[in-house]
Write a structure and sequence with these properties.
- It holds the Pfam family YtzH.
- By secondary structure, this protein is mainly alpha-helical.
- It has one domain (5-17, 24-91).
- 76% of the residues lie in helices and 0% in strands.
- The protein contains five helices and no strands.
- The protein has helices at 5-22, 27-41, 51-66, 70-76, 78-91.
- Helix 1 (5-22) packs antiparallel against helix 2 (27-41) and helix 1 packs antiparallel against helix 5 (78-91).
- The chain is globular.
Amino acid sequence: MPLNAQNQMQLLSDILSNHQTDCCGSVSECEQLERLVKSLMVNADIHENVKPVLEEIYRYSQSGISSSDLSDHITTNKDNLSQWVSDMNNYS
């Protein structure tokens, strides 16, 4: 069963919140973030104001995939993670 946009936004928010709280994650989670963002960016139901946030999350996920120290990458972006989740909640 495919996820609708609301489910995708919630999953995206959950993964980012876990990264922010735990300061760790996996490459597969970054790949999942990347897939979710790609899907949401082409969805007409997504509020235009959230698209710049999705672009930042996409860059974060790509950097995480290629990072030699994913935990450090997540820790470096801890404030961004919190802000992105907040921004997404404002527009969902």
